[in-house]
Design a protein that fits this description.
Blueprint lengths: L1 E6 L17 E6 L5 E5 L9 H12 L3 E3 L5 H9 L3 E3 L6 H9 L20
Parallel strand pairs: 1-4, 4-5
Antiparallel strand pairs: 1-2, 2-3
Length: about 120
């Protein structure tokens, strides 16, 4: 299964980016093979709608889970509509979050964790 994790940089050793819609990168991991790919978040610099745009990109990639620090209301709604599990409150490195996910230590978020436009001034 593919999972996506917001990251400040490239690769499994990158720190988690706490912002979903405006994160620098998404690290996509196949949890069965542990192969990973880092992709630039094309909506990070959008003037508006970064969260929903990022959610659509994650959906197109085929990820079934997103692991991040925070998710705003519009992104949460878009991810939920796409059937993507949302895990928030994450800190540390991408590899640490993958291990915690595989051990079942992370739980889903059923509501947004920040208000609209929370990540714009970071």
């Amino acid at each position: 299964m593919k999972i996506a994790i917001t990251a400040k940089g490239i690769g499994m050793d990158s720190e988690i980016d706490p912002r979903f819609g405006r994160c620098g990168y998404f690290v996509i991991i196949d949890t069965e093979t542990m192969e990973s790919e880092s992709i630039v978040n094309g909506s990070a610099m959008a003037s508006g709608g970064a969260g929903p745009q990022a959610a659509q990109a994650i959906s197109k990639i085929g990820a079934k889970v997103i692991i991040t620090g925070n998710v705003g209301p519009n992104a949460h709604q878009t991810l939920e509509a796409a059937g993507i599990e949302i895990i928030t409150g994450s800190k540390g490195t991408v590899s640490e979050m993958v291990e915690r996910y595989k051990k079942g230590e992370l739980s889903s978020s059923d509501s947004p964790t920040v208000g609209s436009h929370a990540g714009m001034n970071k």
